[in-house]
Amino acid sequence: MTSIVLFGPPGAGKGTQAARITDSTGLPQVSTGDMLRAAVKNGTETGMAAKQYMDAGQLVPDSIIIDLIKERVLEKDAQNGLMFDGFPRTVPQAEALAEITEVSHVISIEVPDERIVERICGRYSCASCGAVYHDTFNPTSTEGVCDQCGSKEMKRRADDNESTVLQRLGAYHEQTSPLADWYDAKGIFHRIDGDRDIDQITVDILQALE
Ligand code: AMP
After folding, report:
1. Does residue 1 carry a pLDDT above 90?
2. What is the rounded distance in angstroms from the CA atom of residue 184 to the CA atom of residue 190?
3. pLDDT (tens digit, 9 = 90+) per residue, 116-135?
4. Does any domain span residue 28?
5. Whole-angstrom distance, CA of residue 11 vs CA of residue 15
6. How far, in Å, CA of 141 to CA of 41, rounded?
7. Which residues are catalytic, by number?
8. 120 with 143: CB under 8 angstroms?
9. Has residue 11 been placed in a domain?
10. Protein residue with least CA distance to atom 12, ligand 1
């Protein structure tokens, strides 16, 4: 089992790129953020424990996240590896992951802080297929209609507001960015300029994965 990690601040475009490269890699996308939002929606024990941290823009405790991942890797589609989006976010999470699967590439999508707030505050996604859009940078071709699946139901995340974004960015710099050195030391860390055209970023990611 060999896996890929998509790394970067909130709003870097990890989810957008994951959806685009999943066909080429054949690896299922695993977003801990999506898993947690589903748990909150379903009112599970994990969701109830995680909600307060998510609402505050803080990281959910490592033990909760690591348990989620340990369960996820047992699923049948994980046999050949997974593409992690938004995980690991701390060194203990990365250490736990190293015990579960080999990581062949860490793709770091880099976007300056000053661009993050505008990117996150305008984003929305299709409630049906999850395709991600942005009011200014990547709108649907027809207003309110998903380009991918034609659904007319769009949604915005509760934590995509300016004050929570600033908290999330703080958590990223304090707790997650130290992981860059951790992975860089292993020689598997690839830096991609994420402040460019979405297609160009995809091309560069696929090249890094070759
Ligand atoms: P995301 O969708 O990746 O932006 O995650 C949304 C929120 O879920 C974050 O602000 C955290 O509260 C929580 N979260 C998601 N993934 C993790 C993780 N790997 N470690 C800790 N908290 C996480």
Report:
1. no
2. 8
3. 999 999 999 999 998 899 99
4. yes
5. 9
6. 29
7. 14, 89, 123, 157, 168
8. no
9. yes
10. 54
> Which residue range is the domain that position 90 belongs to?
2-111+172-208
Number of structural domains the chain divides into: 1
* Ligand 1 atom showing the smallest separation from residue 90 Cα: 20
| Tally of residues, the chain | 210
pLDDT for 174: 97
Residues having CB closer than 6 A to ligand 1 are 10, 32-33, 36, 53-54, 57-60, 65, 86-87, 89, 93, 168
Torsions phi, psi for 201 (to 5 deg): -65, -45
What is the CA angle 75-57-160, rounded to 5?
A: 90
- Domain annotation covers residue 62: yes
pTM of the model: 0.92
Closest atom of ligand 1 to CA, residue 86: 3
Six-digit token string for 198: 């979405």
Q: Is residue 137 part of a domain?
A: no
CATH number of the domain that 196 lies in?
A: 3.40.50.300
Q: What's the 169 CA to ligand 1 centre distance in angstroms?
A: 11
Which atom of ligand 1 sits closest to the CA of residue 14? 3
Closest residue to atom 1 of ligand 1, CA basis: 33
CA distances from 120 to 13, 50, 93, 165, 188 (A): 9, 21, 25, 8, 28
pLDDT digits (tens, 9 = 90+) for 153-203: 999 999 999 999 999 999 999 999 999 999 999 999 999 999 999 999 999
Query: How much is the mean pLDDT over the chain?
Result: 95
Contact status, residue 147 vs residue 140, Cβ threshold 8 Å: yes
The reported pLDDT for the residue numbered 23 is 84
